[in-house]
Design brief:
The complex is a heterotrimer of chains A (146), B (129) and C (665). Chain A is of the alpha/beta class. Chain A has five helices and four strands; from the N terminus they run E-H-E-H-E-H-E-H-H. Chain A has one domain: Lumazine/riboflavin synthase (Rossmann fold), CATH 3.40.50. Chain A is globular. The relative contact order of chain A is 0.23. Chain B is built from eight helices and no strands. With 665 residues, chain C is of the alpha/beta class. In chain C, the strands form twelve sheets. Chain C has a five-stranded parallel β-sheet with strand order 10-7-6-18-29. In chain C, strands 20-27-21-22-23 form a five-stranded parallel β-sheet. In chain C, strands 2-1-3-4 form a four-stranded parallel β-sheet, with helices on both faces. In chain C, helix 1 packs parallel to helix 5, helix 5 runs antiparallel to helix 18 and helix 12 runs parallel beside helix 13. The radius of gyration of chain C is 33 Å and the shape is elongated. Classes of the chains: A alpha/beta (146), B mainly alpha (129), C alpha/beta (665). The interface between B and C is medium-sized, with 20 and 22 residues.
Chain lengths: 146, 129, 665
């Protein structure tokens, strides 16, 4: 990131499901609700499309935090996708924790298409948490540097 | 629990009842065999606890007119369990006397003379060590 | 190598005010594969779209990125423009720099920096896009309606009206359902049979409608437009084509002690029977549980009296396979069993009846011929107590068999019963105990008020706590919450407004259809507000009370709505499928079947395929294949696959990885 000052800005990757959370993020925009520019959203059809390897890849490439947003339990457009996501990520996050990536750097949140305010709020609190933790050192050391 | 005032939260905690589940159908009062003896009827009891009007219940002889037959608990479509509230208020009332259980001497002093036997049994069963 | 064009939209000042669009367009030029990059005032305008078309031709673009508003807004517009320019519409990616950038950030440098990252990630993705073609699948122009009540009949009539063939499968020997058992209908009080039976006849005589009565759905295969349904035609031991419905056998049958389900067991029928006079089809059916000929081989009276020779004791269940394009579930409801409510003494006294039983007792074709008589001693009741909400609105941890929802129809039919009773027998005292009277609906509240004001029905806010049969009377103990009194009424009859629940056949049917249900076994709709008559499973539609409690007007309205959705589907010759679907790489697939288990649509099947081995032999291997017409593209299978054989078109592993990389650069 080309920031003028030298204060730390985290890199945050947000996976948002197309039907609820991505629409929720759009609503946050329509309502002009602020959240830090550090959050970059990747659109996926459903939270269950998020392969754990995507999360690992993000951390491998220097992301400081990864958040996965999906429809509320019971509201999944594909009936059950968010349940799969929840289980997979629970396992993945505990493994990441074991590897030394703090639990606070990963999160699964349910944001509906109507919850623009919740989306902004979630992103604000997540960025704040990750900023406090500082740069994600451990995996950055592990990754190949050119 | 404060010395003198029994609050709504205490009653809810002791009884484990959620008074907000009540839909005011009145089936508890419809089913109550001691209805005509009471000043406050089961559905009112639930409502008064909900409103925090505990002192009136403690003062009322209705408190010990309840037979503890638990018919209201069985019939309540919303599982509110009014009889458990009655028992909780009784318990709180007894504890306020400074006891954790009912002593035999104290009974005539604090209670109505023609208290139904079953209520006594219920109280003893629950609060005697 | 891809040749990518980038278009950065100003959106007036919506984007340009906080994002330096020129800098974004300039930055995009330096990305690999980008051969054209420009900014423009309004990309979605006619001239903006023309710019896309022209640049595709001029620069021989193979992929484009539009940096604009949310793809939920204009993705379609730009895909169409790209297609008009000769590009595959799936070679378009949108970088959302309005909703997710310019509108939420105030600081220009950081917003511009973010926009550049978003564009970079979109470029990285589009580089890996592959042209996709939406497949098509043919539509079988025939619909199946499961359930022959008013919902099913109305749906079938409406579909047939549009010129499509439709079959009704009904598990009972006749169509008609619950409405056939009802005496009068609220709020107009016209007789149910008078308005239902013409519809039944219309269905029977319509040459587009086939009725499979006494039949059940036993298997469903296929997908939207192409279902194959196995229908079990239960043995009725009477040849349908020969039976004339004369009814002689039903008079001569010596087995007279069979509870008559049409009258809810309030009287008896024979072992061979026609459910009611206006039954459709009017064909006799032998009840194998009671027929002595079928049980012990001794009797054969019906066979002797039947001049048409229609009786066939050797009949067996038959299974037939039929192809359909659409399926409508119209399985309806039943009142719950109220035996568990000891306090109402339903099991102890025959004079405590449910509302549906009361309906039969009032009906001219019912067990009492329309005269209201107590079931116990067949005398005229003078005091009748109606109890509302029996089993409805109970808490979810209820130990009885109660339901947490409001059954919706009880307030109105109880008002109807009370009113009709007072009208026919003004000497009766009628009490209705209610918790709330819920009468939303056209002319509904007026109807209820009429029962109170004109007919003098006693409505009492409170509940009945106990019913005790004593000396030929029913002692009713109840509360009157307004008066603050406990009431004791000596009643002659007590009528319970039992909650309604979905028919027991709905749950296994939902499993066959892979349609989803809620915890109460009501079918769930695709969207509770905007798609109320469609199931989330494509090609499956919902009609009537199988979706939730409904009265007759609502049921008929929903039946028509379901029919119109079916017609919309059947009117198409081909269905265009979403091309962003999963596909399995057969070379990588190990045949573990994990993906099949997670697929919510049953889109994945396994089959053996022949593979050439390096040593020139062939080998049979089990591999997954995705039915593109059924797959909705959620991607659950792609993550489950342990060998990485499953991928999702349009959102492939490589594409998402590339996006991640671009963002983390």
């Amino acid at each position: 990131m080309q920031m003028n000052d030298n204060t730390f800005r985290p890199k945050i990757v947000a996976f948002c499901c197309n039907w609820c959370s991505y629409a929720g993020a759009d609503l946050a925009g329509t309502n002009r609700l602020n959240y830090p520019a550090d959050v970059k959203i990747i659109r996926v059809p459903c939270s269950c499309r998020v392969n754990p390897t995507f999360v690992l890849r993000a951390f491998g490439r220097g992301a400081d935090g990864v958040i996965i947003c999906g429809c509320h339990p019971g509201d999944c457009h594909y009936t059950s996708g968010n349940y799969y996501a929840r289980r997979r990520m629970t396992l993945l996050f505990s493994m990441l924790d074991y590897l030394g990536i703090e639990r606070e750097r990963t999160r699964v949140e349910w944001v509906s298409a109507a919850e623009g305010a919740k989306f902004a709020q979630t992103m604000n609190s997540f960025v704040e948490t990750v900023t406090k933790l500082g740069k994600n050192k451990r995996l950055e050391d592990l990754r190949c540097k050119k | 629990m404060s010395e003198n005032n029994i609050c709504r939260e205490d009653i809810l905690r002791i009884s484990g009842v959620d008074t907000r589940k009540c839909m005011r159908c009145g089936k508890c009062s419809a089913t109550c065999p001691a209805y005509d003896e009471m000043e406050y009827h089961p559905h009112q009891f639930v409502n008064m606890v909900e409103n925090g009007d505990i002192e009136a219940l403690v003062e009322s002889p209705s408190l010990f007119k309840c037979l503890s037959c638990f018919a209201c608990i069985d019939r309540c479509p919303r599982q509110v369990e009014p009889a458990k509230l009655v028992e909780a208020v009784r318990s709180a009332c007894i504890r306020r006397q400074g006891h954790n259980h009912l002593s035999a001497d104290a009974i005539p002093a604090i209670l109505d003379p023609d208290i139904p036997q079953q209520a006594l049994v219920s109280a003893f069963r629950k609060y005697s060590e | 190598m891809q040749r990518i064009g980038v278009f950065v939209c100003h959106c007036g000042s919506n984007i340009a005010a906080t994002v330096d669009v020129k800098a974004v367009a300039e930055a995009a030029k330096h990305e690999s594969g980008v051969v054209f990059s420009a900014d423009y005032q309004y990309m979605c305008s006619e001239s903006g779209q023309d710019l896309i078309k022209d640049m595709i031709k001029e620069h021989k673009l193979t992929g484009i990125v539009v940096c604009s508003c949310s793809p939920r807004m204009h993705e379609n517009t730009f895909c169409k423009a790209a297609a008009a320019g000769g590009l595959n519409p799936y070679m378009v990616e949108i970088a959302n720099i309005r909703e997710q950038c310019s509108w939420i950030h105030k600081d220009m440098p950081s917003a511009t920096a973010k926009a550049i990252v978003l564009v970079r990630s979109a470029i990285a993705k589009v580089t890996l896009n592959a042209p996709l073609t939406a497949g098509t699948s043919p539509v079988t122009k025939r619909a199946l309606v499961i359930g022959g009540g008013i919902a099913g009949i109305q749906t079938a009539l409406d579909i047939a009206d549009a010129g499509f063939e439709v079959d009704i499968v009904e598990k009972e020997p006749t169509i008609g359902g619950k409405m056939a058992q009802i005496d009068k209908t609220f709020p107009t009080l016209d007789c149910a049979a008078c308005i239902l039976t013409p519809k039944m006849v219309e269905a029977a005589q319509n040459d587009k409608i086939r009725i499979f009565s006494y039949s059940e759905v036993s298997a469903v295969k296929g997908f939207v437009g192409n279902f194959t349904v196995t229908i079990k035609r239960k043995a009725r031991y009477v040849k349908e084509d020969l039976c004339t419905g004369c009814g002689l056998c039903t008079e001569k049958c010596p087995q007279k002690k069979v509870p008559n389900e049409f009258n809810l067991g309030l009287d008896n029928r024979r072992a061979i029977y026609i459910p009611f006079a206006q039954a459709i089809p009017k064909i006799a059916t032998i009840d194998p549980d009671y027929c002595t000929m079928l049980k012990s081989g001794k009797c054969g009276v019906c066979s002797k009296v039947c001049s048409a020779g229609a009786i066939d004791y050797q009949a067996k269940d038959e299974f037939i396979d039929v192809n359909y394009g659409a399926i409508v579930a119209a399985t309806g409801f039943n009142p719950i069993k109220v035996d568990k409510y000891d306090e109402f003494a339903y099991a102890q006294s025959p004079d405590v009846v449910t509302s549906l039983e009361y309906e039969r007792l009032m009906n001219a074709a019912g067990p009492t011929g329309g005269t209201l008589l107590r079931p116990s001693d067949r005398t005229h009741p003078h005091t009748i107590v109606f109890v509302q909400c029996v089993g409805s609105r109970e808490s979810e941890d209820s130990t009885k068999c109660g339901k947490s929802y409001c059954s919706k129809i009880c307030c109105m039919y109880t008002a109807k019963h009370a009113m009709l009773t007072r009208e026919k027998y003004p000497d009766t005292d009628v009490y209705v105990f209610y918790i709330d009277v819920r009468t939303p609906g056209k002319s509904f509240d007026e109807f209820y008020r009429r029962a109170v004001e004109q007919y003098g029905v006693h409505y009492i806010k409170g509940m009945v706590g106990k019913v005790t049969p004593e000396g030929g009377k029913l002692k009713v103990q109840a509360s009157d919450l307004i008066a603050g009194k406990q009431l004791h009424i000596d009643a002659d009859m007590v009528v319970l407004a039992a909650a309604i629940e979905p028919d027991k056949t709905a749950r296994p049917l939902a499993t066959l259809l892979t349609a989803s249900m809620d915890t109460n076994d009501f079918f769930t709709e695709a969207h509770p507000k905007l798609r109320p008559v469609e199931s989330p499973t494509a090609g499956v539609f919902l009609s009537g009370a199988c979706q939730g409690p409904k009265d007759i007007p609502e049921t008929v309205a929903q039946a028509g709505a379901a029919a119109s959705k079916v017609i919309g589907l059947l009117a198409k010759d081909h269905l265009v499928c979403n091309p962003c679907v999963a596909n399995a790489n057969e070379m990588l697939c190990s045949g573990c079947s994990q993906c099949e288990k997670v697929c919510p649509y049953g889109a994945i099947t396994y089959s053996y395929k022949e593979f050439r081995m390096p040593d020139r032999t062939t080998k049979l291997r089990l591999v997954a294949s995705v039915n593109a017409a059924v797959c909705q593209g959620c991607g659950a299978c792609t993550v489950t696959c342990p060998s990485g054989a499953m991928d999702l078109k349009g959102f492939s592993n490589k594409q998402i990885m590339a996006e991640v990389d671009a963002i983390c650069k």
